[in-house]
Amino acid sequence: MKKLSGRGVYGAVAIGTASVFRRHCTSVCCTHIDDTEGEIKRAQAAKELAVSQLSEIYEKVSCEAGEAAAQIIELHMMMLEDDDYNKSIESIIRTQKINAEYAVKLTCDSFSKMFSSMEDDYMHQRAADVKDISGRLIGCLSGNGYESTDSAEQLIICADDLAPSETALLDKSRVLAFVTASGSVNSHTAILAAGMNIPAVVNVGDDLLNLVRDGDRLIVDGGTGDIIIGADEQTEREYFLKGEEYARRKALLLELKGKPDMTKDGRKINIFANISSTDGISAALENDAGGIGLFRSEFLFLESSSYPTEEKQFTAYRQVLESMKGKKVIIRTLDIGADKRADYFQLEREENPALGLRAVRLCLKRRDIFITHLRALYRASVYGKLSIMFPMITSVSEVEKCLEACEEAKRGLKADGIPYSGDVTLGIMIETPAAAVISDLLAPLVDFFSVGTNDLTQYTLACDRQNPALEEFADTRHEAVMRLIRLSAENAHKCGIKIGICGELAADTSLTENFIRMGIDELSVSPPYILNVRKKVRSLDLS
Ligand code: PEP
Ligand code: MG
User: Fold this and answer.
1) Ligand 2 centroid, distance to 160 Cα (angstroms)
2) How far apart are CA 335 and CA 530, in angstroms?
3) Hey, where are the domains in the chain?
4) Contact status, residue 16 vs residue 177, Cβ threshold 8 Å
5) CA–CA separation, 489 vs 326, rounded Å?
6) Which residues are catalytic?
7) Measured CA distances, 202 to 159, 195, 467, 509, 527 (Å)
8) What does the DSSP 8-state code read for residue 347?
9) Which range among 210-214, 366-370, 474-478 has the greatest average pLDDT?
């Protein structure tokens, strides 16, 4: 039995089987080959092995999860046998005289690009399948037992780190917990895990991947950050009971459902939910969210292998608005860039991506993507109470340009005879020191502010939020951060607009009283934290 520890992200215990996360087609080296016919035979043998692995998995899944669930594996077997796919690999080996692994990678790149560019939704989704079968094939060629998403078992995913796009693409119904060697508690992956009610531990260190192997039995305590490998029966029992205790504490909070979010002296505070996809709606409703304070719209883009169409975006936004039945829904416009990268945006490599072309900066430069996005939002606005919020604002002119883009999107819809609501409110995130400092100039332009404490802390304290080594310096309660929030609240209220907090700090109940005294009107948190914040708000008397 071995014990590791990291930073716990979400208090719950998972006990199950480890699966080491391997990236598809990324770290494949290209080498020169003289014996091309021998290399082609090696590729064919690997294909036979991959097909036989899949047929075993097919049998297992169809027994355990039924024929429908097994269909995807059957499709993967067919794709591996596909003539065009195999001919492409052979021809690359023969003409370019390179190793089979690299030929598979090049074929994977070109086939997945072709599928991604297709309009048809079904064909479009095949891009992920090509990557999956190619990853398996490369695993068979290089002797690594590639484990893809084909088994039906729920697994504990262990990785060096997970990019938000990688986390978004995992089949969440099959993830029992996340454990990463690096990563920080403010990373988007940690935020996603908490939002999905999945225990997660980050920053465990290199020992994680040195010690953990596929199939190992693991215990993950998302509260304390403990990871136990190969626990004995007694330890497993202890953690099982601890998991029950976490669950009991959460259950106790359920009696707060339906109760008003009001302090003892009668101050009403909106307690809303942060969600990253339509999957989060049910958690928001189960935890009695007063509305959605932050819908991270970029995850729809990160889950896709090409730009989601206006129709696809509209469908997602409409679903959130309809599900919230008239409660306020704040959808943040695309916050792509920095750690949230999608290949098809073809963003240039940047030395300091967090300070780079991200969020509204990217949208203002790629106006066509922005206008499509805004059209989808306005189209959805007739199905509920929509607010649109712009991230990463640093200047008055950016806000003016965003407002002008909204006008253009509305003009377009009007010309096309498509209805939209006249009641959409527009707000900005206060997540740069610049925005907080000029909040008096920004407030007259918009209907509300929402403070993004994750980025505000990163930029104020010059501490990369992705870097776990900076945790002792990235003090989220730093006086400088607090002053910027207070200043923004004062300027919001002078102008008669509301201000919320949607960064992770909103869930820190040791600060709730301070925030309310500063004049914060809304706290938006991951759904599992809503009732805890409600409990705190209801216990306060500020009179
Ligand atoms: C923030 O920066 O606090 C925020 C809410 O946005 P994100 O975490 O998505 O960057
Ligand atoms: Mg942010």
Assistant:
1) 23
2) 24
3) 2-23+148-235, 36-142, 264-428+500-539
4) yes
5) 26
6) 188, 502
7) 10, 15, 11, 22, 20
8) P
9) 366-370
